[in-house]
Amino acid sequence: MSSLPLCLHNKANPLIACSLYAHCQTTLVDGYSRICVLDHVCQVFDKMPKRDVASWNALIDGLAQESRSRDGLGLFKKMRVEGVRAN
């Protein structure tokens, strides 16, 4: 079952609906990346209280899909600095 419907239930502010669910926030990052809404992707990602490798991967992939590989590489380096191991 996808977490996206739960996240989108609160249309005014999906961050409130997802504040307790890291996997839900990662789903938002992935979903916004897929529809090329990178400003929302970065907003969700920046406000995530805890980022795991899946959330980093979702944003890096979104940047790569938008031909922003340099930004994606920079984010990968930041991920490593923050101690998140790549998989």
TrEMBL record:
Keyword Repeat listed: yes
Entry-linked PROSITE patterns: PPR
Gene3D superfamilies to which the protein is assigned, alphabetical: Tetratricopeptide repeat domain
Gene Ontology BP terms: RNA modification
Highest rank taxon of the organism: Eukaryota
Stored Pfam families: PPR (PF01535)
PPR repeats: 52-86
Keyword set, alphabetical order: Repeat
Tagged with keyword Repeat: yes
Gene Ontology molecular function: any one: RNA binding
Protein name per Swiss-Prot or TrEMBL: Pentatricopeptide repeat-containing protein
Organism of this sequence: Stephania yunnanensis
